[in-house]
């Protein structure tokens, strides 16, 4: 443990683990783990868009989920994030930093629609849906 005067307990702020550290991501700024507020905001934008689009054609709740899934599956590999992600300054990428490809968005979206995998997180703030797909949502 590092000792440094002026800090409570003698521990420097940089010595404490942070979300994304195990993945080699920075603590703050571009490339760091996207925070909960940004994620929830992005989810509301994407779900709201699906809700509005389904309302134009008079579809039911299942249609909202289908449209939401289509938004995710189309935009994740093409724009590196859904419209909501991009609006809130988030980018989806593979855990090793590469392009997400075509199958990862499908797996991630199916698990996201099931909700439970998305609300179970690890210490890097990655939900089961991201871990299963091998992806991470970072600040752009």
From TrEMBL:
Subcellular localization, as worded in the UniProt entry: Cell membrane
Main location: membrane
Keyword tags: Cell membrane, Membrane, Transmembrane, Transmembrane helix
Signal peptide from the UniProt entry: none
The keyword Transmembrane helix appears for this protein: yes
InterPro entries documented for this protein: Pra-immunoreactive, RDD, UCP021697
Domain RDD: 58-134
Transmembrane segments: 61-79, 100-121
Pfam family, one: RDD
Protein name listed in UniProt: Transporter
Organism field: Microbacterium aurantiacum
